[in-house]
Amino acid sequence: MRHVLRSLLLLTVTVLWLTTPLAAKPLNLIILHLNDWDKMDSAGRVASVIKAEKAKAAENGAAVLVTFGGDMISPSLMSGIDQGAHMIELGEAVGIQYGALGNHEFDFGPEVLKQRLAEADFPWMSSNTLVNGKVFPGLDGSQLVEIDGYKIGIIGLTTPETIFLSSPGATVTFTSYAEAGQREVAALKAQGADFIIVLSHGGEGLDRELTRTLRDVDLVMGGHDHLARTVYDGRDMTAAAGSQGEFVAKVTLTIDRVEKRGKTSLVWSPAFDLIPTRNATPDATVQAKVDGYLATLDKELGQVIGSTSIELDTRRASIRSVETGFGNLVADASRAATGADVGIANGGGIRGDKVYAAGTELTRKDILSELPFGNSTVKLELTGAQLRAVLENGVSEVEKGAGRFAQVSGMVFSYDASKPAGARVVEVTVGGKPLNTAGTYTLATNDYVAGGGDGYAVFKKAKVLVDGDAGGLLAGQVIDYIKAKGTGGSKVEGRITRLD
Ligand SMILES: [Zn+2]
């Protein structure tokens, strides 16, 4: 399919070439950009905004490129079912023509990514995602498009942090932005590129570093940091569209060739818009696809994922005051998904308020109603002393039944609630060894408490290894954990002991 698309593009270019003298007139070029869009809900509205923009551009004789800045196939509930295939279809349906690879594209491993890339009608690019020195199979490093006699180079780049943010496998490596960018820019320039756009999944810091270090990069359309942003310093331009199709980032360029003392050079002037999609009337065709997937999702949510071998208690009074099987399950699942030393689940994040008897068949819906907040899992590094402070906060309001109560994984602790808050934790072991207050530990928890919620200010002092934007969905991790184990729940085994 991809080859068909490319030949069509070539054909268009050839026709233009024959009918228009080379760069006889300025090029009006509009770039419409999305990034960090992994949840399908907005697809109908995004499609209608893009369609309207294309219609306007056609009236004004402007060319349009629709680009994507990475993170599409994960994480979402539906991705947990079809590993992101639906988003590839919706990406095509809204009109995406060029995509950059994001870290989340590797969430299901390199083999699934290859399948998704093969399904896509549009080229995905990442010039710094390599296997044995070559760009990852199914990806391109860059593309060169010719429009009205102007050659536009488009390069893809992906955050090198993908190596620990996702699951690219043992053979995939990520080189630096500067190194891969330089190589690709040189190749495009050698082919006569007039204007170079980078689709970057690396956040604002890397985007701006790139425009500073590589003079020939003219425009960076970004992603990864979920920011809706445009920056223009008179020469370099970066823009990104937030996340989840909330906005379409639009860059309008007038590109022209000028002659000065016998030398031809390119000049351009930009305009920037962030077009909100929230009030758009959904495109009927695309919305019908979304509705179809929502119906599939609803059916799949009712499917049994495992049956619990033990009683699982999520009653409010239990989950906020004592170790429970369900609390252990959530903390274990987030720890397993991130490979952290320990895991923490705040009792207030678990909301089902019920008891599942041993032998109960668990569905995805059960897990979603227990974890309704859509939190993602964060991985932090903290000292033993900070970890102790985490547990102190966890038991500091146990008599009030506060949501901060800490369900734990990978560690065992005791506390005395007759003592003042902040001085209640008595004994802590991690992986069977006494807590070393000067040591460092990795910890998995949800993005709400990691941001200081439920009194966990101490987390804000910890080093962030995987942040909420890069982390997986907590509910999805619990579902995967149950599916992998076949049984839901991790039995109550004395992880938390109240001494008073
Ligand atoms: Zn990302």
Explain what the structure shows.
With 500 residues, the chain is α/β, with parallel strands linked by helices. The protein has two domains: 2-297, 4-Layer Sandwich (Purple Acid Phosphatase, chain A, domain 2), CATH 3.60.21; 302-498, 5'-nucleotidase,  domain 2. It is elongated, with a radius of gyration of 26 Å. The structure holds zinc ion (ZN).
* Strand order in the sheet with the most strands: 4-3-2-1-14-15
CATH superfamily of the largest domain: Metallo-dependent phosphatases
Structural class: alpha/beta
Strand content: 25-35%
Number of strands: 28
Mass-distribution shape: elongated
What CATH first level of the largest domain would be assigned? Alpha Beta
CATH architecture heading of the largest domain: 4-Layer Sandwich
What count of helical segments does DSSP give? Answer: 15
> CATH topology of the largest domain, which one?
Purple Acid Phosphatase, chain A, domain 2
How many strands, what sense, and barrel or not for the largest sheet?
A: 6 strands, mixed
In total, the number of domains comes to: 2
Q: Determine the mean pLDDT.
A: 93
Distance between the termini: 68 Å
- List cofactors, ions and other ligands: zinc ion
- Unreliable segments of 5+ consecutive residues: 1-23
Q: Using only CA atoms, what is the Rg?
A: 26 Å
The helix fraction, in percent, is 25-40%
